[in-house]
Amino acid sequence: MSSYVLDQYFERTPTKNWFDTQFVSYGSPEDPMTSIFLDPKLLAHRFYQLCSHEDVALASSLIRPSSLFIEDLSKAKYFTDEGYGSVKKVYIICTEDKVLPKEFQQWLIDNIGTVTEAKEIKGADHMAMLCMPKQLCDTLLEIAYKYN
User: Coiled coil where (predicted)?
Assistant: First the structure.
């Protein structure tokens, strides 16, 4: 597997959409890594825009630098049909996701190549588990029953 999906995402995402998110290089020159520190405004306006103020406040208070894993992904082995390809995959589209717009989600579905089905949660932002937990749970149960 490569970091192709992340590369495509960064290529398609305008810089202004990142607000004041910080990307920092770390590691050694022989083994460089990239970390990301999300701007709290990014969380409020793109990740959690339909969530409660309490969820946004909690998420903002828990922000920590994280690896983007781009370098790790570029070194990872490709998935095989015998392993990854043998599992049914259902993609859940969140229609109001501002982190992964619906067009990019559709691009993912089209380019993963092994998506068995796509389901949609209308009105869900990137954090469907917080803004629409019942709808997400119902969708996951439906998928589990169908592909059990």
Answer: none
